[in-house]
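Preliminary data (for renewal application), zinc ion complex.
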Amino acid sequence: MQQQRMGIWGALVVLQLALAGFGEARAQDKGTLDPQPLPPLAKPDDPALAAKQLFGRKAGPAPLQARAIGFYAKGCLAGATALPINGKTWQVMRLSRNRNWGHPNLIRFLERLADKGPTVGWPGLLVGDISQARGGPMLTGHASHQVGLDADIWLTPMPDRELTREEREEMSATNVVAGDKKDVDPAVWTPAHVAIIRAAATEPEVERIFVNAAIKKALCRDAGRDRAWLHKVRPMWGHNYHFHIRMRCPADNPDCKPQEPPTNGEGCGHDLDWWFRDAVLNPKPPATPSKPKPSLKMADLPPACRQVLVAP
Ligand SMILES: [Zn+2]
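Predicted structure:
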């Protein structure tokens, strides 16, 4: 009996391995859509090396207890989990970036928010960047998204079919801001946009949400009487194609450095004036180009990030 059971399990394992192998082969056939390992570094211990070069090369999570370590823009992530690339109510975009990793609190929250979507008129989430497998600074884009508590959600509702890998690489998100940047574009902005951002903001675990100032203005106008959530939604440059969700530090992650809580006011009306000044909307390029910020080194990150990096 035992022998027979082993036989069945053995067969299942072989079948699974075969299927996994098939998946890999298929992915390779399609060229560059899956994460390509970067060449190894000549001097990985060089203290002058940018931390993004090290974290950007880690394809899998650190098999440690889940912990957000450091600050949203200066930290790393242990024990990350991946948001599955397909759910009934979500699809992960830009798969080649391998940035669908997050703290389990964030991943569970995204699944809940996705499921809530259809009940408020948003059919499902197209999920942009979350974090790298071990968090940390990234080789391209984003100053934050380092501790697994930030996620970008496209302002495009999920289509009612599974997108191909190519579509997830090449499709563009929807810019909901009008050409003059002073308001949303009424041709694409819908009550469902308000509803899905509101659904995210009303979650107690959500610390704040970043959107373009024109979107904040529209939310202030469209919120009606139910306005208690508006103070969490803060204006930010860009964020006209996606909104950015930031979770609070988990209570049991003492190394996670929280952000100052947002002010209590709604942040509507004259609070937004600064964002719509011409000099802010259409800034002139500086006379002398500003020096790029130096990249974070390992020494700039919390010491525990070294363990995250070297974990097998
Ligand atoms: Zn973001």
